[in-house]
């Protein structure tokens, strides 16, 4: 197994193990699932491939799946979020891995194909990279893979488009759309980890400055909420009139991006779309503006436009590149426009990823028990969604009320 992996340095394993040991006590839902999987072995004889950001929390998910009896392989979903010591720790514990920090585009693609050579029975995907690669280049695997689960908003969008066109090669479950995922991971997780990545990299104050959050979905809400808590003034840019109204009623300024460009000190894109900040906006920005992306792909801030407009560029700090424009204004791009919370930080806190990864583990188990599902995109069953949140409450020592039989009848019967 170890010889089949592609990694930077196996000698880094002890450091990675310490990181994994740190998150375990803070992931009680996954601990509970890990214990049950170890006893029941629901994945015995199966191969499961995970394409995720390779850091401590995802490593523990991989080890939990392995505890269920599976042969497990992992591959990175982003070359700048990979932590080489985590990859080494996984390989040292019998997980096949294909990733290293800073992989080139060619290396990243090669890693995806090496991972797919594993011929998995089930997949856990992030951003739809595995599914897209199978459809485009590895169609021989369509009959082998029995199903999978998707982690992100961007991935679900891609899968929904595939499903609409009838191209989805096997059943996939939209874990991102579960309440126990997006209400916590997307909102509180993204909000905290984005600012963690920005602040540790810049070492600059946030209070009193103006932050422009582009996109007011659940991730954007979280980023804005944390910025307000840090003392910033907020401008929200949106294309969805309902979300724009929501941002306004949450107490934020709502403007077009061109109107916001001259005022903001920080720009954070959270849209999942392409070419959001581009050549129409960069020349309008104030000197010292900081650009960061919290969407899945590095396409929201147009890096080509920025490079073409710049008369010079240099790296001024780790994960910060300075671009000097023709008008003398200097703007700063963080983490090459990739996910700032993972490329410049450690990603979401363990407690919120505990719920997301608990869902991932349970949904792969669900797929093994429901082999008659058709080639469509499915939602997480409400009973499993509720189960994960109840497990989290139990771990906190919290109890909630239950509906009585009379109340359930009243809610279900229109004649009552």
Automatic annotation (TrEMBL):
Cofactor dependency: NAD(+)
Superkingdom to which the source organism belongs: Bacteria
Binding site for NAD(+): 152-154, 186, 215-222, 238, 273, 294-296, 341, 348
Record pathway: Amino-acid biosynthesis; L-homocysteine biosynthesis; L-homocysteine from S-adenosyl-L-homocysteine: step 1/1
Residues where substrate binds: 126, 151, 181, 185
Cofactor note: Binds 1 NAD(+) per subunit.
InterPro entries in alphabetical order: Adenosylhomocyst_ase-like_sf, Adenosylhomocysteinase-like, Ado_hCys_hydrolase_NAD-bd, NAD(P)-bd_dom_sf, S-Ado-L-homoCys_hydrolase_CS
A GO biological process held by the record: L-homocysteine biosynthetic process
Cell compartments where the protein resides: Cytoplasm
Residue span(s) of domain S-adenosyl-L-homocysteine hydrolase NAD binding: 186-347
PANTHER family registered for this protein in UniProt: ADENOSYLHOMOCYSTEINASE
Function, as annotated: May play a key role in the regulation of the intracellular concentration of adenosylhomocysteine.
Family stated for the protein in its record: Belongs to the adenosylhomocysteinase family.
Protein name: Adenosylhomocysteinase
Taxonomic classification: Bacteria, Bacillati, Bacillota, Clostridia, Eubacteriales
């Amino acid at each position: 197994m170890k010889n089949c992996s592609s990694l930077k340095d196996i000698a880094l394993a002890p450091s990675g193990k310490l990181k994994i040991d740190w998150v375990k006590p803070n992931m009680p839902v996954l601990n509970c699932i890990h214990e049950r999987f170890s006893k029941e072995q629901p994945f015995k004889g199966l191969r499961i491939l995970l394409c995720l950001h390779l850091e401590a929390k995802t490593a523990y998910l991989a080890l939990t799946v392995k505890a269920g009896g599976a042969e497990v392989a992992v591959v990175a979903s982003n070359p700048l979020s990979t932590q080489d010591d985590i990859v080494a720790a996984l390989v040292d514990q019998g997980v096949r891995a294909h990733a290293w920090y800073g992989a080139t585009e060619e290396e990243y693609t090669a890693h995806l194909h090496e991972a797919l050579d594993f011929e998995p029975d089930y997949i856990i995907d992030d951003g739809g990279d595995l599914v897209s690669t199978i459809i485009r280049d590895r169609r021989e695997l369509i009959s082998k893979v029995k199903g999978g689960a998707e982690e992100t908003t961007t991935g679900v969008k891609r899968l929904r488009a595939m499903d609409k066109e009838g191209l989805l090669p096997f059943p996939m479950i939209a874990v991102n759309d579960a309440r126990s995922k997006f209400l916590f991971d997307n909102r509180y997780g993204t909000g905290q980890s984005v600012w963690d990545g920005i602040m540790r990299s810049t070492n600059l104050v946030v209070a009193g400055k103006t932050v422009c959050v582009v996109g007011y979905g659940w991730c954007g809400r979280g980023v804005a909420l944390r910025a307000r808590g840090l003392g910033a003034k907020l401008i929200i840019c949106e294309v969805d009139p309902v979300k724009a109204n929501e941002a306004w009623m949450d107490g934020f300024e709502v403007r077009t991006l061109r109107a916001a460009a001259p005022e903001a000190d920080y720009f954070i894109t959270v849209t999942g779309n392409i070419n959001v900040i581009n050549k129409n906006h960069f020349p309008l920005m104030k000197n010292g503006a900081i650009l960061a992306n919290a969407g899945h792909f590095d396409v929201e801030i147009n890096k080509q436009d920025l490079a073409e407009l710049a008369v010079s560029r240099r790296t001024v700090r780790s994960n910060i590149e300075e671009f000097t424009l023709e008008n003398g204004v200097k703007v700063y791009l963080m983490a090459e426009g990739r996910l700032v919370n993972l490329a410049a930080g450690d990603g979401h806190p363990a407690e919120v990823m505990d719920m997301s990864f608990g869902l991932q583990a349970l949904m792969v188990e669900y797929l093994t028990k429901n082999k008659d599902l058709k080639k469509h995109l499915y939602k997480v069953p409400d009973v499993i969604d509720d189960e994960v949140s109840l497990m989290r409450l139990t771990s906190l020592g919290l109890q909630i009320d239950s509906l009585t039989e009379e109340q359930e009848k009243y809610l279900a019967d229109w004649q009552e």
